Amino acid sequence: MPINQPSNQIRLTNVSLVRMKKGKKRYEIACYKNKVLEWRSGIETDLDNVLQIPAVFLSVSKGQNAPAQDLAKSFGPKATQDEIILEILNKGELQVGEKERHAQLDRVHHEVIDIVAGKLVDPETKRVYTAGMIEKALAELSSQGAHPHNEGKGASGAGASGTATPTNGEQNTSKSKELPTWTGVVATRSSKSQALDAMKALIAHQPIPVARARMRLRITCPNNILKQAVKSSAKSKENEDGDEGAVEKPKGTVKDRILSYIEQVESQDVLGEEWEVMGFVEPGAFKGLGDFLGGETRGRGRVEVLDMAVAHEGD
């Protein structure tokens, strides 16, 4: 007995939908799972690897294509199908299943843990923590995320300043800004930005003793500039990593100011008409050092990153 099958039927499997409502109509495109996020992050650049079928639908599940007149009315008469697909792909709402959502969160979670574990060290031993220890510390912070830090450790700081409790909402807001919190990863932000938030929270709350791993830099500057007096007397602003606040640097020579940024000098040497120093710098001081050197030397001084995070591995 012959088996009748539609010759023009296309079955879409392993599909993720991207939807966009425009001009009172909802449009959909069918994409491969995990490829939409890769496209939006720039990892995937071939559109053929993202789309299951190069068409715009009113309903993918029903196989209902969007009429050309509806597309022209919603996106404009001059918009091509490729332009419409790209707009939906880049700006539309991604529909993901429960399993895919959990898999994505798990992936982001592990990426955040790996980044944090590679950039934080024990301040006493200068050794890195294992990913498991970082994960446990962040889980502790996440469980306390609903409670402001100043209800716990911050109470001692309040007592020392002679203030028992905040008198208004503004004081609560200022304290919460000073002490970052961590409530866990989300799928809508990049791993790097969330890792930065996690590091800020770990450094602020110290569930385990942590500090940023130091950067190893090479700094060069012309000899005839080194002994000049510093022109600017600006204070270093609070850095983006939430380390130390505004600290006034020495007002001596350019060389004195450069050395004040370096936590540990590894070597110094004069090479021809240039002075070179290699050493270790806190990540929070890197931007201030670069800005100072660029302004004082008018671009003749250079800062070269030799290692982004110097730490001792465990034996």
Q: Which characteristics define this entry?
A:
315 residues; alpha+beta; 11 helices; elongated
Structure description:
This protein is an alpha+beta fold and 315 residues long. Helices cover 38% and strands 20% of the residues. Strands 9-10-8-11 form a four-stranded antiparallel β-sheet. Helix 4 crosses helix 5 and helix 4 (98-119) crosses helix 8 (191-205). The chain is elongated, with a radius of gyration of 27 Å.
The N- to C-terminal Cα distance equals 72 Å
Q: Which percent bin holds the helix content?
A: 25-40%
Sheet-strand content, in percent, reads 15-25%
Give, in order, the helices and strands.
EEHEEHHEHEHHHHEEHHEEHE
Unreliable residue runs:
148-167, 233-249
Which structural class should the secondary elements be placed in? alpha+beta
Oligomer: single chain
| Cα gyration radius (Å) | 27 Å
